[in-house]
Write a structure and sequence with these properties.
Length: 196
Protein backbone atom coordinates (compact mmCIF):
# COMPACT_ATOMS: atom_id res chain seq x y z
CA UNK A 1 0.00 0.00 0.00
CA UNK A 2 2.97 2.27 0.64
CA UNK A 3 4.11 2.29 -2.99
CA UNK A 4 0.52 2.83 -4.15
CA UNK A 5 0.32 5.95 -1.99
CA UNK A 6 3.69 7.08 -3.31
CA UNK A 7 2.37 6.77 -6.89
CA UNK A 8 -0.71 8.87 -6.08
CA UNK A 9 1.45 11.60 -4.51
CA UNK A 10 3.80 11.47 -7.49
CA UNK A 11 0.97 11.83 -10.00
CA UNK A 12 -0.36 14.82 -8.05
CA UNK A 13 3.04 16.56 -8.00
CA UNK A 14 3.85 15.72 -11.62
CA UNK A 15 0.51 17.08 -12.81
CA UNK A 16 0.99 20.19 -10.68
CA UNK A 17 4.42 20.74 -12.24
CA UNK A 18 3.09 20.26 -15.77
CA UNK A 19 -0.15 22.26 -15.70
CA UNK A 20 0.41 24.48 -12.62
CA UNK A 21 -3.23 24.04 -11.55
CA UNK A 22 -4.06 22.48 -8.20
CA UNK A 23 -7.55 21.39 -9.26
CA UNK A 24 -6.21 19.43 -12.25
CA UNK A 25 -3.58 17.81 -10.02
CA UNK A 26 -6.24 16.74 -7.52
CA UNK A 27 -8.31 15.24 -10.33
CA UNK A 28 -5.30 13.37 -11.69
CA UNK A 29 -4.55 11.96 -8.23
CA UNK A 30 -8.21 11.03 -7.69
CA UNK A 31 -8.32 9.17 -11.01
CA UNK A 32 -5.07 7.42 -10.13
CA UNK A 33 -6.57 6.19 -6.86
CA UNK A 34 -9.26 4.41 -8.92
CA UNK A 35 -6.65 2.48 -10.91
CA UNK A 36 -6.45 -1.12 -9.64
CA UNK A 37 -2.66 -1.09 -10.03
CA UNK A 38 -2.22 1.46 -7.29
CA UNK A 39 -3.69 -0.34 -4.31
CA UNK A 40 -4.52 -3.88 -5.46
CA UNK A 41 -1.10 -4.69 -6.89
CA UNK A 42 0.70 -2.81 -4.15
CA UNK A 43 -1.04 -4.98 -1.54
CA UNK A 44 0.28 -8.15 -3.16
CA UNK A 45 3.66 -6.54 -3.89
CA UNK A 46 3.73 -7.08 -7.65
CA UNK A 47 6.81 -5.64 -9.37
CA UNK A 48 4.66 -3.35 -11.50
CA UNK A 49 3.89 -1.06 -8.57
CA UNK A 50 7.59 -0.55 -7.81
CA UNK A 51 8.36 0.28 -11.42
CA UNK A 52 5.38 2.63 -11.58
CA UNK A 53 6.44 4.42 -8.39
CA UNK A 54 10.07 4.79 -9.45
CA UNK A 55 9.19 5.98 -12.98
CA UNK A 56 6.54 8.40 -11.68
CA UNK A 57 8.94 10.00 -9.23
CA UNK A 58 11.74 9.96 -11.81
CA UNK A 59 9.53 12.05 -14.07
CA UNK A 60 8.57 14.32 -11.17
CA UNK A 61 12.26 15.01 -10.50
CA UNK A 62 13.04 15.28 -14.23
CA UNK A 63 10.19 17.73 -14.86
CA UNK A 64 11.11 19.79 -11.81
CA UNK A 65 14.70 19.88 -13.06
CA UNK A 66 13.56 21.20 -16.42
CA UNK A 67 10.70 23.51 -15.48
CA UNK A 68 11.25 24.68 -11.94
CA UNK A 69 12.82 28.06 -11.34
CA UNK A 70 15.58 26.96 -9.01
CA UNK A 71 19.35 27.34 -8.86
CA UNK A 72 21.70 25.43 -11.15
CA UNK A 73 22.79 23.08 -8.35
CA UNK A 74 19.24 22.18 -7.35
CA UNK A 75 18.31 21.50 -10.97
CA UNK A 76 21.40 19.31 -11.40
CA UNK A 77 20.45 17.39 -8.24
CA UNK A 78 16.89 16.90 -9.52
CA UNK A 79 18.13 15.52 -12.85
CA UNK A 80 20.58 13.27 -10.96
CA UNK A 81 17.75 12.06 -8.69
CA UNK A 82 15.68 11.22 -11.76
CA UNK A 83 18.62 9.23 -13.13
CA UNK A 84 18.90 7.21 -9.91
CA UNK A 85 15.14 6.63 -9.87
CA UNK A 86 15.19 5.45 -13.50
CA UNK A 87 18.01 3.07 -12.51
CA UNK A 88 15.89 1.68 -9.67
CA UNK A 89 12.95 1.29 -12.04
CA UNK A 90 15.02 -0.57 -14.64
CA UNK A 91 16.43 -2.75 -11.84
CA UNK A 92 12.87 -3.69 -10.95
CA UNK A 93 11.66 -4.38 -14.48
CA UNK A 94 13.13 -3.71 -17.90
CA UNK A 95 9.93 -2.10 -19.15
CA UNK A 96 11.18 1.09 -17.46
CA UNK A 97 13.77 1.44 -20.24
CA UNK A 98 11.04 3.15 -22.28
CA UNK A 99 10.55 5.89 -19.70
CA UNK A 100 14.28 6.40 -19.34
CA UNK A 101 14.71 6.63 -23.12
CA UNK A 102 11.81 9.10 -23.34
CA UNK A 103 13.43 11.34 -20.72
CA UNK A 104 16.74 11.27 -22.62
CA UNK A 105 14.98 12.16 -25.90
CA UNK A 106 13.03 14.99 -24.22
CA UNK A 107 16.19 16.40 -22.65
CA UNK A 108 18.09 16.21 -25.94
CA UNK A 109 15.17 17.85 -27.80
CA UNK A 110 14.94 20.71 -25.30
CA UNK A 111 18.70 21.22 -25.60
CA UNK A 112 18.56 21.19 -29.42
CA UNK A 113 15.65 23.62 -29.43
CA UNK A 114 17.37 26.00 -27.03
CA UNK A 115 20.57 25.89 -29.13
CA UNK A 116 18.62 26.56 -32.34
CA UNK A 117 17.08 29.64 -30.75
CA UNK A 118 20.36 30.71 -29.12
CA UNK A 119 18.39 30.99 -25.90
CA UNK A 120 19.86 28.71 -23.30
CA UNK A 121 17.46 27.41 -20.66
CA UNK A 122 18.43 29.34 -17.55
CA UNK A 123 20.37 27.54 -14.86
CA UNK A 124 20.65 24.18 -16.63
CA UNK A 125 23.90 22.77 -17.98
CA UNK A 126 22.67 20.39 -20.67
CA UNK A 127 25.84 18.32 -21.25
CA UNK A 128 26.05 17.59 -17.53
CA UNK A 129 22.31 16.89 -17.32
CA UNK A 130 22.47 14.45 -20.24
CA UNK A 131 25.54 12.82 -18.71
CA UNK A 132 23.75 12.42 -15.38
CA UNK A 133 20.63 11.04 -17.00
CA UNK A 134 22.65 8.65 -19.18
CA UNK A 135 25.17 7.40 -16.60
CA UNK A 136 23.35 7.33 -13.25
CA UNK A 137 20.71 4.76 -14.24
CA UNK A 138 23.45 2.44 -15.50
CA UNK A 139 25.44 2.91 -12.28
CA UNK A 140 22.34 2.36 -10.14
CA UNK A 141 21.43 -0.77 -12.09
CA UNK A 142 24.99 -2.04 -11.60
CA UNK A 143 24.91 -1.30 -7.87
CA UNK A 144 21.60 -3.13 -7.43
CA UNK A 145 22.91 -6.07 -9.45
CA UNK A 146 26.12 -6.16 -7.37
CA UNK A 147 24.10 -6.08 -4.15
CA UNK A 148 21.96 -8.96 -5.40
CA UNK A 149 25.03 -10.99 -6.32
CA UNK A 150 26.66 -10.38 -2.94
CA UNK A 151 23.43 -11.05 -1.02
CA UNK A 152 22.87 -14.41 -2.72
CA UNK A 153 26.59 -15.32 -2.68
CA UNK A 154 26.84 -15.42 -6.46
CA UNK A 155 29.98 -14.62 -8.44
CA UNK A 156 30.34 -10.90 -9.04
CA UNK A 157 31.69 -9.98 -12.43
CA UNK A 158 30.53 -8.14 -15.50
CA UNK A 159 30.41 -11.47 -17.35
CA UNK A 160 28.07 -12.95 -14.72
CA UNK A 161 25.77 -9.92 -14.89
CA UNK A 162 25.64 -10.11 -18.68
CA UNK A 163 25.10 -13.88 -18.51
CA UNK A 164 22.16 -13.48 -16.11
CA UNK A 165 20.58 -10.78 -18.26
CA UNK A 166 21.00 -13.03 -21.30
CA UNK A 167 19.34 -15.93 -19.45
CA UNK A 168 16.35 -13.76 -18.57
CA UNK A 169 16.12 -12.50 -22.15
CA UNK A 170 16.21 -16.03 -23.59
CA UNK A 171 13.65 -17.26 -21.06
CA UNK A 172 11.18 -14.61 -22.20
CA UNK A 173 11.94 -15.17 -25.86
CA UNK A 174 11.37 -18.94 -25.65
CA UNK A 175 8.58 -19.04 -23.09
CA UNK A 176 5.70 -21.19 -24.28
CA UNK A 177 3.11 -18.56 -25.16
CA UNK A 178 0.74 -21.25 -26.40
CA UNK A 179 -0.52 -22.02 -22.91
CA UNK A 180 -4.06 -20.78 -23.37
CA UNK A 181 -7.21 -20.96 -21.36
CA UNK A 182 -9.16 -24.07 -22.29
CA UNK A 183 -12.54 -22.68 -21.40
CA UNK A 184 -14.67 -20.12 -23.23
CA UNK A 185 -14.12 -16.54 -22.14
CA UNK A 186 -17.75 -15.96 -21.19
CA UNK A 187 -17.52 -18.60 -18.45
CA UNK A 188 -14.53 -16.98 -16.69
CA UNK A 189 -16.56 -14.92 -14.19
CA UNK A 190 -18.38 -18.07 -13.04
CA UNK A 191 -15.29 -20.19 -12.39
CA UNK A 192 -14.72 -21.00 -8.73
CA UNK A 193 -11.19 -22.34 -9.20
CA UNK A 194 -8.24 -20.52 -10.76
CA UNK A 195 -6.94 -21.50 -14.17
CA UNK A 196 -3.30 -22.57 -14.29
Amino acid sequence: VLFGSVVVAGVYLWTLLLVRRNRAAIWAAALTVMNPLVFVLSRIAMLDIYVTAFVTWAFVAFTAGLLDDRSRHVRALLIAASGVLFGLAVSSKWIALGGWAAALVILAAVWARSRARNADVPRLNFPIAIGELAALPVLTYGAIEAFRKIWFHLPLSLASVMSRNEEVWHFHQHYNHLLQQSIPWYTWPFRLVPEH
